[in-house]
Amino acid sequence: MPDAATATPPISAYIRTKNEERLIGEVIRAAQQVAREVVLVDSGSTDRTIAIAEELGARVIREQWHGWGRQKRIAEDACTHDWLLDLDADEIVTPELAEEIRALFAGGEPPAPVYEMLMATAPPVGEAWMTYNLVDRRKLYDRRAIRIPDHAMDDQFKPPPGMQVGKLRGRLLHRSFTGLEQLETKFTRHAASSARDSKLKPLWLVQLRLLFGYPFYFLNQYLRRGLWRAGWYGFSVATIAAHGRWLRDALMLEIHLRNREARTED
């Protein structure tokens, strides 16, 4: 019988999927280091995603796409346990993070209702960026205390003032792209959905960002987030990320122009 430090905690891990056969097996196996249950909410996979998940013992819920936050809400409701681990289909729980989570539950209920961890990018070439370009993500939480927003775009909760948020030191690996071409496509797709589904910014602000935003977007990635440490590959990633952010502004401008045209026709 495993002792408390090695026993699997009462956690349900949930994952949104659509055609994720490339990594879903690795993601599920890594999650099973800390989760008694893995739940997939799948929005129409046509590859082997569902078959792989079921072979590994995950529970699959087939549900059409309702939006980023709403899809997670469906997953929250479907989970057996109250403690939830929110994972994307390209996020890998490292052994170090798994050990830390098991230790957190070894004495019973954790003291905080929410825990954040550092997500480290694992690029398709070279070593993972374990000490830079890190992103804080609140991934482990008690649904009795807080829930994901019921929103089309927003899928990250914001703890209210006074809520305790614990910090985990172990890394969550993010295999977010397979190459620069795919990264460009990913940012373009996200820019389009964000421009379409987010609150439309005022025209003057959109125009200001179109003129002056790109250098700031690039420097934020390259200097503040440390991508300069990844050499020319980091420079390339920062450039693509900045363009994706700028593209959202350009698409919002297009929405403004279309709206103006429609009003003129009326």
Describe this structure in a few short sentences.
The chain has 266 residues and is α/β, with parallel strands linked by helices. Helices cover 42% and strands 19% of the residues. The protein has two domains: 11-174, Alpha-Beta Complex (Spore Coat Polysaccharide Biosynthesis Protein SpsA, Chain A); 180-265, no CATH class.
Which descriptors apply to this entry?
266 residues, alpha/beta, Spore Coat Polysaccharide Biosynthesis Protein SpsA, Chain A, 7 helices, 42% helix, globular
What are the segments in which pLDDT stays under 50 over at least 5 consecutive residues?
A: none
Number of domains: 2
Order of helices and strands: EHEHEHEEHEEEHHH
Biggest sheet descriptor? 8 strands, mixed
Total DSSP helices: 7
The count of DSSP E runs of length 2 or more, i.e. the number of strands, is 8
Helix content: 40-55%
CATH architecture of the largest domain: Alpha-Beta Complex
Instruction: Tell me the span between the first and last alpha carbons.
Output: 73 Å
Please identify the oligomeric state.
single chain
CATH class value of the largest domain: Alpha Beta
